[in-house]
Specification:
Strand content: 5-15%
Number of strands: 16
Radius of gyration: 27 Å
Distance between the termini: 38 Å
Shape: globular
Length: 649
């Protein structure tokens, strides 16, 4: 199916999906039917629609109701139905049931039907639809939109496949030959094809050669993309003879099993902390807000209520703050609230109030009530201030600052002062921290970080650290399952009394470049850089090894020439050790922001799930002047979700 939308270079996947749905589905339907319409969705298509099109946009196209295909629905005979469905047997059967006449049931909707599927409809389901004559004769549109992914950020996507981890990694095999893993790889490949169809990309396919999952996925994707191109003769791609404004993209396929350290560490950037420490249901978070309408005798708000908010690209403040350190987030929010309170409109409130350096939530609520012209922006500011303070409350109550410093030393192989710690000293510190930590997930993460970063415990340390960790059966199982991923719990007896600087022997070359020295964090508690950073830097400079990351087809010479991004690899380095939550001094206090949205795209896909530090890394490298980079995954993982995935093996 041809994508007729002409995509602008650098506009990202989420705007492309929004534009495609609005123009080729909603506007197309509204131009063919003069009245109101009903959008009918199943579970999978609901997630696709809700990730990028809000109710306001739907109502602009005269869609005044969204219905669940699986639930009993009231009739709306004056409204035309827009079915936006995933091509499954269940959804097609329910669609046909809607339009199969019977004495007891009349049609639910008007006799103008618009039918769209998220991806290619299998032949057997197409025949089922053709056999339903009452449905076919009412069809005014029947199309496959090729959007079988969730565009959760402007340049990030996932497949909502939380249950894929166990089938991909359950057996410690050398080739993915079991049927479950093959089925998952084929499903991932099909979804990746719909992504490339929307982006108009025919990418060079590269993969980690040591990963059975990435290798299998590369084979299946190449096959399915070739089939798609062969059956869509009018489809075009960036880099063909008629579209030369940018070159062909590169798709790099990676596996979560090759970096199990990054999802375990405590992160101090806003988005990562929110998803780690707070209760977030997909994108929805509930927070406590003081009500502007209720006051005590002194004029202060006292009542609170629960409010829901969505953490997505529609929230401009969330987009601005999500990649920043939590200390910077609180400083920015406090400053903006103070500016509003001290504005000419709010002088009276400020004078009453408060010469204090920090505003309380009650004072914020007073400002919200007294400054109605700022109500919307103040509401959003106080929402994020509430969330940031909740993160910090948990952070402080669980003493995560000391724990995180220990994690950083283990992960980087260096102390904050740049010294090489002794293994015996680290074992003592880890044992002590495990004994003091009350949270079982925190204990699991610390022990797992020690195991993964050191490629196993020394035999003489196993019993004492396991006892100190006090893991329950669930977490013991999760820990033991690292061995299924090729990470030993206990290493073979060998010499050496220094902390290892490598995550895994197979990734030593890349990881050693991505630990502390190249980290551009200004904070002592955030020295570690995930493996993906090293890989992306080498990919952007065309230095990524073709032995370690081969291409399915030979890479053309021009794609291997230098792309001019080498200056982007320069990072801000720490010159002195910082302590705890303080800023680290840098060689240059100013940073330039602004991605160069030209040249060929780089699309990275992480089978087994991507963590929020990796999302931030991809964004940061773009903002530092790199090429347009998109990061996708089977599902997004918080530390808690990663532990659940491990336990599912």
């Amino acid at each position: 199916m041809r994508s007729s939308v002409q995509n602008k270079p650098g506009e990202g996947i989420r705007p492309i999906v929004m534009n495609r749905i609005q123009t080729e589905v909603l506007q197309s339907c509204s131009s063919k039917f003069p009245g109101y319409m009903v959008l009918i969705v199943d579970e999978a298509s609901t997630r696709i629609i809700s990730s990028c099109v809000g109710m306001y946009k739907l109502m602009e196209s005269r869609v005044n109701l969204v219905e669940d295909l699986t639930k009993k629905r009231a009739p709306y005979r004056q409204s035309a139905p827009i079915y936006f469905l995933s091509p499954t047997h269940d959804s097609v059967d329910r669609l046909i049931e809607d339009w199969t006449p019977s004495k007891k049931k009349k049609p639910l909707y008007a006799d103008t039907i618009f039918l769209y599927f998220t991806k290619t409809l299998p032949d057997d389901l197409l025949q089922k639809i053709k056999a339903c004559k009452p449905l076919v004769k009412r069809l005014k549109a029947f199309n496959e939109v090729n959007i079988d992914f969730i565009a959760n950020e402007i340049r990030a996507f996932h497949f909502d496949m939380e249950s894929s981890f166990a089938p991909l990694y359950r057996k410690n095999h050398t080739t993915t030959t079991n049927e479950e893993a093959e089925a998952i790889c084929k499903s991932i490949a099909s979804k990746l094809v719909t992504l490339c169809a929307q982006l108009n990309e025919y990418p060079h396919i590269r993969y980690r050669s040591s990963s059975p999952v990435a290798s299998s996925l590369a084979t299946h994707f190449h096959q399915k993309l070739t089939e798609y191109i062969g059956s869509n003769e009018t489809w075009w791609y960036h880099g063909d003879s008629e579209h030369t404004e940018r070159g062909r993209a590169t798709l790099l396929l990676l596996s979560r099993a090759d970096d199990c350290l990054s999802p375990l560490l405590h992160e101090f950037t806003y988005q990562a902390m929110v998803y780690d420490l707070l209760d977030v249901d997909r994108e929805k978070i509930t927070y406590r807000a003081e009500m502007a309408g209720s006051v005590d005798p002194e004029g202060n708000a006292v009542d609170v209520m629960d409010k829901d908010a969505l953490l997505n690209d529609d929230d401009e403040l969330w987009v601005e703050l999500r990649g920043k350190h939590i200390a910077d987030v609180i400083q920015i929010l406090s400053g903006r609230i103070r500016e509003i309170v001290n504005s000419s409109t709010g002088v009276a409130l400020s004078a009453k109030g408060s010469k204090a350096k920090a505003l309380s939530l009650t004072q914020m609520s007073n400002a919200l009530r007294a400054l109605p012209e700022y109500r919307e922006v103040m509401s959003k500011l106080t929402q994020h201030m509430n969330m940031a303070h909740r993160c910090m409350d948990i952070f402080n109550s669980e003493n995560l600052i000391d724990l995180s410093e220990l994690e950083q030393t283990l992960a980087t192989g260096k102390t904050d002062e740049g010294k090489d710690p002794r293994v015996a000293d680290m074992v003592e510190q880890v044992e002590s921290a495990l004994g003091e930590a009350g949270n079982i997930l925190a204990r699991f993460r610390l022990l797992a970080i020690f195991i993964v970063s050191q490629d196993g415990l020394r035999p003489e340390d196993e019993e004492r650290l396991m006892d100190a960790a006090r893991l329950d059966p669930f977490h013991r199982k999760a820990l033991q399952n690292f061995e299924i991923l090729g990470i030993p719990i206990v290493k073979a007896a060998e010499g050496g009394n220094r902390i290892s600087k490598s995550l895994r022997k197979t990734a030593m070359k890349l990881i050693s470049k991505g630990n502390s020295d190249n980290s551009d964090s200004q904070y002592a508690s955030s020295r570690f850089a995930c493996e993906l950073k090293s890989i992306l830097l080498e990919l952007q400079e065309n230095k990524l090894s073709l032995d370690d990351f081969p291409s399915v087809l030979p890479m053309p010479v021009q794609s291997l020439e230098s792309s001019g991004y080498s200056s982007m690899a320069k990072s801000v380095r720490s010159t002195t050790g910082g302590s705890r939550f303080s800023r680290r001094s840098t060689t240059d206090s100013s940073t330039e922001s602004g991605a160069k949205l030209f040249g060929a795209r780089q699309i990275v896909f992480m089978a087994g799930g991507a963590c929020y530090s990796e999302l931030r890394t991809a964004r940061d490298l773009m903002e530092a002047g790199g090429p347009e980079t998109m990061l996708g995954c089977t599902h997004l993982i918080s530390p808690g979700q990663f532990v659940k995935d491990l336990a599912s093996l």
